[in-house]
Amino acid sequence: MIKIFGILRKKQLKEEEFQLNYEKYYPVVYKQLYYLLGSNELAEDITQEVFIRYYNAKEEIEFVGAWLSKVATNLAFNHIRGEKRRVKREENMLEDTNNIFAIEDEIFRNEQIEAVRNILSSLSNEQSTCLILKFSGYSYEEIHNATNIPKNNIGQIIARGKKKFLKLYKGEGDFNVL
Fold it and tell me: Which pTM value belongs to this model?
């Protein structure tokens, strides 16, 4: 009974500490994010994300203000990089749709697409998924979030998948491309 009371008391103290720090640092974190992002809505959303991470932190945080500022900055820069990649992907898609191919080029392109699909289907699910996401412009963090593959493994999976893909595409393997 005493042990349960002690656990409940620690949780109550943690929640009280969180509430005090939330009230103290929310305006500071919000202003920092607003200056970095230039958007009220984005600043509010990412400020909430910062405090969710603070609330769920497993370790004891000694310098709360500095920790919150660092997390806020990292999340803002991640968002900015992600937006740049998204814009670039959209621009690439627009360029692709604006190109007009001759009939021969279209047939050749379709054959290449079919070959790539066949090779991707011969790779492991992890390899093909990671390759597709990486060459679509996603970061390791985004690939990790989409696949739940540990970030430390993603580079190796991509390298092995790329090596096997190239071997099969060049016809060095026992796989018939077309």
Answer: 0.48
H-run or E-run covering 144: helix 140-147
Cα separation, 48 vs 111, in Å, equals 48
Residue 176: per-residue pLDDT: 45
Q: How many helices (H) and strands (E) does the chain have?
A: 7, 0
22 with 68: CB under 8 angstroms? Answer: no
CA–CA dist 134, 125 (Å, integer): 14
- Count of CB atoms situated within 10 Å of the CB of 75: 19
Q: How many CB atoms lie within 10 A of CB 21?
A: 18
Q: How far apart are CA 8 and CA 46, in angstroms?
A: 30
pLDDT block averages, 10 residues each, the chain of length 178? 54 80 92 89 94 88 90 92 87 66 71 85 87 86 87 91 89 50
d(CA 28, CA 69): 8
Which structural domains are found in the chain, ordered by start? 2-87 (1.10.1740), 103-169 (1.10.10)
* Tokens 């803002």 belong to residue: 76
pLDDT at 103: 65
Q: Cα separation of 47 and 36, whole Å?
A: 12
